[in-house]
Amino acid sequence: MESKITTENHMVGLSQEPKEENRNTPFTYGQPEKVNSNSWRFRNSVQLGIFLLTLGIGIQFFIYVLQASSAGAIEVSRPPGVEGFLPIGALLGWKLFLTTGVWDDVHPAAMVILGFAGLISLFLRKSFCGWFCPVGTLSEWLWKLGKKLFRKNYQVPKWLDFPLRSMKYLILGFFIWSILSMGRSAILDFLHSPYYKISDVKMLFFFTRMSTTSAIVLFVLLTSSLMVRNSWCRYLCPYGALMGLFSFISPTRILRNSKTCIQCKSCAEVCPYHLPVNRKEHIRSSECNGCMDCVSVCPVENTLELKTKWFNRQIWSPLKLGMVIVGLFIGLVYAAEITGHWKSSVSEYEFRVRLQDIDSSKYSHPGGRVQTPPRP
Ligand code: SF4
Ligand code: SF4
C-alpha cells in the first residue's frame, strides 16, 4: 500500500520542496511506467481485462464468419460486442431513437456501447477513454513501450500541438454534419441497407484483407504511437473527441488544493495529456480522460481529488471510479440483453446468404452511399 504525506505532517513543517523520498513514491518521478500503486495496478487490470475481452470477441467473430462462409454447421455464436466498432451506425441509431423512438435492431449493441461511453463521459469525465477503450489501452501500451525503447517520449511543439489536436474535432464535425443532414427515411435506408447489415464483416475484412494503403497508414499510426504519448487519442480519434464534448459539461473534475500542494510536479509529469495539473486549481480540459493517474501519484493526502463541481467533497477514489465503470457496463449489457435490445435481428441464415456475395457492388458504399432496400 502506497504511503502519502498527510496534510497534518505537511502543515507541521514541510518546506515547499518535496523530500527526495517523497518525490519517488508511489511513482518514480517523471517515470510513470515504474509505478508501484494499488490504484495504478487496478486501472491497468481493468484495461487489460477489457482488452482481452475485445480480443476474445474479435477471435470469436472471426471463427463465426469462417464457419458461416463454409457449408458446415456454425458452432459459435455471433458476439454482439463486435458492434462496438461501428460508431457511425450507432450515432445514426441514436438519432433515429431520439427523434422517432425507433430502436435500431440491426446492430443494437453498437448503440448500447456508445450510450454507455457517452453516459460515463457525461458524469465521470472522459473516463471511457482512460479506463475502457481497448484502442486507448493499446495506445497507452505503445507509448510506454516507446519510452523503454527510445528512453523518452517525444513531445510535439506547442505551435503544432493545437492544430493537430483540432483534427479529431474536424473529423467528428464532418460525421456529425453528415448525420444531422440525414432525415428519418435516409437513416432507415442506411440502417437496413445490405451494406450495414454486414458492416461488421467489412470491418473484420479491413484487418484480414488489408490493402497496402491501409497497412501503410496503420504502420504510421503505430510508429507515431510509440514515439508520442497517446498520439491517436490526442490528435485523430473522433470517438474520443465526442467523449471530450460530453465530458466538457461533466460535473466532476480534478481539483487541486493549492494550500497543501508541495509543487513536486509529479501530477503534471504523469499526465498522459501533458495537462498543467500542478498549476491549475481545477482541470476542466476536455482532454482529461479521468485516468486518475495524477491523483494516484500525488504524494500529499487530500491534495488532488476527483470532486463534483457543486459539492466540495471527494466523490471518487480511483478504485471506486473503476468499479462503477465496470459495474455500469455489466449492468447496461445485462439490461439490454434481457429486454431484447442487445442481439442483432440479422438471422444466421440471412448472414450466410449475404456472406456469399459480400464482394458484390450490393455491399459497397461509394462516397458513403449505400444501396437502399426496396420499400414495402
Ligand atoms: S489530469 Fe489527471 S485524470 Fe486527467 S488525464 Fe491528466 S492524469 Fe489523467
Ligand atoms: S498536486 Fe501535483 S504538484 Fe501538488 S503535491 Fe500533488 S502531485 Fe505534487
For this entry, give a set of tags.
376 residues, mainly alpha, four-stranded antiparallel sheet, 18 helices, 57% helix, globular, binds iron/sulfur cluster
Notes on the structure:
- The protein is mainly alpha-helical and 376 residues long.
- It has a domain at 39-252 and 324-364.
- Helix content is 57%, strand content 4%.
- Strands 2-1-3-4 form a four-stranded antiparallel sheet.
- A hairpin with a 5-residue loop joins strand 3 (304-308) and strand 4.
- The chain is globular.
- Residues 10-36 have low confidence and may be disordered.
- The chain binds iron/sulfur cluster (2 copies).
- One iron/sulfur cluster binds at residues 256, 261-267, 277-278, 297-298, 300, 303-304.
Topology:
Layout: H1 7-13, H2 20-23, H3 38-69, H4 87-100, H5 108-123, H6 127-132, H7 134-150, H8 158-180, H9 184-191, H10 194-197, H11 199-208, H12 212-227, H13 231-236, H14 238-248, E1 252-256, H15 266-270, E2 282-283, H16 293-297, E3 304-308, E4 314-316, H17 318-338, H18 348-356
Antiparallel strand pairs: 1-2, 1-3, 3-4
This protein binds iron/sulfur cluster (2 copies).
